[in-house]
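ok so for the tutorial part 2 we go from a plain amino acid sequence to predicted structure tokens. step 1 is just haveing the sequence, like this:
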Amino acid sequence: PEQPTATPFPLFTASPSPTNLPADSMSYALNAGSPVAISSVAFHPEVGCNWMGVAGQVLDLSGAPVSTGVIIHLGGELAGVRKEVTSLTGTARQYGEAGYEIVLSTTPVDSTNSLWVQLLDQAGLPMSPRVYFDTYASCDRNLIFITFKQVKNQ
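step 2 — the prediction. this is what the tokens look like for a chain of 154 residues:
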């Protein structure tokens, strides 16, 4: 297999960790109107209020779906339980061609900025800043919809 090209070390003189790179160095950012809390009933009528999750899409510079190759990494804590989950674009097409979904719990729970999502490339390198979001103990707001849009070429 082809070996990755080595990058000269002085690029990272301040030694930032990959997850804490400046937002303006990222190729993806939150799309306008994201995140938004909505009811999941249109997407999961069979579970009623016994479900809570985060979902969305990833769009390129022109607004077209990026349906392959992007990892959505979720981390943080919900109701005292540590969460670390990944998903891929294109795996939850009910949200669009580049849709993704991550189930958070079987009941809606309030949380404030304790969970985050971040886009990663296939090498696990960040393509967006971490986006922290709130969740709600409400059946009308048990789906957090987060769409990312490419803001510059990688």
